[in-house]
Amino acid sequence: MANSSKARGDGAEQAACDYLQSQKLQILQRNYRCRLGEIDIVARHHDYLVFVEVRLRGNLRFGGAAESVNARKQQRLIHAASHYLASQCQTEPPCRFDVIEATESNGEFQLNWLPNAFQL
After folding, report:
1. How many structural domains does the chain have?
2. Positive or negative CA dihedral for 116, 43, 78, 60?
3. Is the CB of residue 18 less than 8 Å from the CB of residue 10?
4. Count of H helices and E strands in the chain?
5. Which residues, in sequence order, are CB contacts of 76 under 8 Å at separation 6+?
6. Which domain holds residue 102?
7. Is residue 113 within 8 Å of residue 69, measured between CB atoms?
8. What is the pLDDT of residue 66?
9. What is the Cα–Cα distance from 107 to 97, expressed in whole angstroms?
10. Which pTM value belongs to this model?
């Protein structure tokens, strides 16, 4: 079961990357990990560095995927993004945090992109 869960999550992230590229974002890195957290996708969109959280929900009983990016998760993303900026960037570009909600039906992912989903 864990493997199918991981495979579905990986599939959702790949679908999100494909979608973002179709929207003219350049994928810079996937699954950036540091001791402070993980960022699913780091991308460039025009002058912005975009940190993307992909959330897959199979059961809406506890709310949609976007609702699962609560204040605690947002703080972990912000800390991981700060680490990324300090270790990967010469200068600090303007940044934003996007969320992509993914649901799966018959092996296909439906995506809802929420640009600038939360602020620092």
Report:
1. 1
2. positive
3. no
4. 2, 5
5. 36, 37
6. 2-118
7. no
8. 66
9. 27
10. 0.90
Integer Cα distance of 48 and 71 in angstroms: 23
Report the distance separating Cα 51 and Cα 49, nearest Å. Answer: 7
Single-letter residue type at 92: E
Q: Which residues on adjacent β-strands are paired with residue 44?
A: 26, 49
Tokens standing for residue 8: 């579905």
Total count of residues recorded for the chain:
120
Pairing mode, if any, of strands 37-45 and 26-34? Answer: antiparallel
100, 101, 104, 107: CA torsion to nearest 10: 0
pLDDT of residue 64: 65
Q: What is the CATH number of the domain that holds 93?
A: 3.40.1350.10
DSSP 35: T
Full pLDDT tens readout for the chain, 120 residues: 455 888 888 999 999 999 999 999 999 999 999 999 999 999 999 999 999 999 987 655 556 666 778 889 999 999 999 999 999 988 889 999 999 999 888 888 999 999 999 876
